[in-house]
Amino acid sequence: MKIMTAKIAAVFIVIVLAIGAIVVQNNYFSTSAPAHLVLLLPDNADAQSPKVQVWLDAIEEEGFLVTVMHDSAFLHPWTNRSKFSGVILPDQVHKVASDSLITTLDDYVTKGGKLMLVYDAGIWSLESRYTSNFSRFSHLAGVNYAHYNKLQKETISWQPVLASEKTFSTLRIPPGKYHPYGELAVKKSPRIDYVKVQDDKLYSISGYEHMLINYDIYATDYKYSGEVLMQSPKGDVIAGKRSHGKGTVLYVNLSLGYLKGRTDGLFLHSFLHYFANHIVQLPYLAAVPDGVGGIVMNWHLDSNVAFRPLKRIRDLGIYKQGPYSIHITAGPDSLFIGDQAGLNVPENKRSQKWIKYFKEKGYQVGSHGGWIHDRFGEYVKDKPTEEFERYLVKNKQALEKVLAQPITEYSAPKGNHPEWVTSWLAKNKINSYYFTGNTGMSPTRSYRNGVLNNPEVWSFPILPYRDMAGFEELRNHKIKSTVVSRWLTQASEFSADTNTLRLIYFHPRGALFYKSAIRDWLAMADVLQSQKRFRWYTMTEISKFLTSRNKIKWDFEAEKKLHTFTANHTDSMNSFAWMLSRSIYNKPVITEGNARITLSNNHWSIIAGKGKKLIFTSTTIN
Asked: pTM, whole model, 2 decimals?
């Protein structure tokens, strides 16, 4: 009996100690949070589904580490939630939330956690219905939203987004994508309610061939207990950041994953980076070689009209810089069959001479569609046909014969790029293409209709100015040279400051309309290059870099203030760079492998050299 009593007492002590450990670990937030974000999914969600993968791909492209976790694991009493540096509730896949999950997330944030709450996450009860009055996450979001019982069909509305210049800049929205709302709004656009909308929220988002972009948002109350980042003209809160206890909540009233799945991914990437880098303050792996930002200058040569401009732009000094991506439509016709207005690469010696000159300069020559520019751009359909596949093949083969090397880049005539063309590119080992979707973004793997079919091919979205891109369009809209100069130079500064890359495209004949603007652009690039903060890149170089970057396996361990980073690559670590905030970390120390450390835009930049393994350490400041 005494033995049995002693065993029971021992078991009781173990249980008490275990409960005590749970209480301790979930009441005191870790001061050395690990590097992984947590993407929180319901138990019935498939992590391989496109709606989840679109988030995982975006996090990977932004260079952050992530762990997928299901609700049951997050709610388990043994789970040490204090170790999670930041939790994301994504749109589309987490509409249903239990009362237990809501209570636990509240507790997590109150004790110091960081939460990104997106659009329709948790708006339904376990019965997959809207809850009464408003979303049960409203207290965390900082504003009441999803008033289905009250608003019914008006629960969701189609609205522009308003923000300040400072907010768009902080979100890393590039110049040219946002403009004063008054310049973008049309007669049918809603008027700003200046009683409900903050005074500085006067800028909105545009896109290529879209003067003003609207988004589906949930109607909200307009009183918000935090910092409003974005509003609708009516005063709805579209994004905001607020403190909740010791933690922080970023509320985003946009269906970020859905938008990325339909070629509008800028906000998903922008808010992800803002949350992970500014709020959670995590280190990340840069998406450009050596962590140096830059521009892909993409020329399109589609007819023999290009010959004279190619000579005249020499006076701008443009051939003294580079490399650039130069894409050519190679057939003898340009507008229609038999017009003889094409570059006729197989027969025309001038075309061949220019192509060889570009190769000698180190520029990358790519394929601009299929053989007859306007016919291809106007008539290519969503499904492949023998005619247009033949045009793609002939264009590629004609250029490769002159170059004596494979074609690895592509751009679509008139921006008409059906998905079957991407599959053709993948099959023919063309790893990059210019894209009129996802405008304003860095290179990305583009989802179409919610699905990523060709993950090995990188799209390079154009950076538009308002609803325009090429210089001819700018001239047709009477955009002044001083305005174009400011846009181009600011785009280069933006890329340098954010350690990212953007693509700007034009036709050489259009460049002649803005000679002074291009001189200013080249002069700014020269200054930034002298500071080692900017480079011209080609699509091929970056796509190869990004594909290799996906092979890196890295992580870090935190032991109090000492963080140890370990990275491995199957081939070489050369030119990959990690960015650590100077406000968080002291100067890193290389303990194994080859790397150099520089300062870059308030970050420590750890730039790997040759070798397959790298280990470095850094201590946190606080």
From this structure: 0.94
